[in-house]
Give the backbone structure.
Amino acid sequence: MTGKTVTHEEILESFNRTVADAAAYLCCVDEKLTDGHQSAHGVLAQMVYWHEQYVHILKAIIAGQPPELQAGTFDVLNMIGRQKYAREALPMLAHQLTTLHHEFDTLLRTITDWSLNFPVKQDSGYCSIAERIRLIDAHIFNRVALLKRAEAGHAKIKTHITEE
């Protein structure tokens, strides 16, 4: 590791690439494809739901107001997201994700202090904007990677090598 500090622009470039790749892949994949935990449709519905939450939360942070945060476990909140978008087709969800992400990116670019707390639900601990964006980026990347592995017939994330 070089110890190089990652800039906000580099964080956003990675995040934007990840979301664009996710939208492009998920808009056209079989919606019933599953990674063993969630269907492609469910994963994309959750991404749209959470992007709505992120935009709402960031607008409150920018306005200097406490954000209205959802209560519940991630499992419950993800279920709410899946139910909210259960009837939406993948191409429409991918479009919504892209639109919401553009708004999110635009809002993020107005913030100079990325050390501010960016909670995502009521019982969130402290997490800076910079760290939250990296976490969201990694989560989206990993969810899509799981689906791609499942599509290729490699549902397991990691296999253990044993000596013969």
Summary: The helical segments are 8-26, 40-62, 74-84, 90-108, 129-151. Residues 40-62 form the longest helix (23 residues). Confidence is low (pLDDT under 50) at residues 156-164.
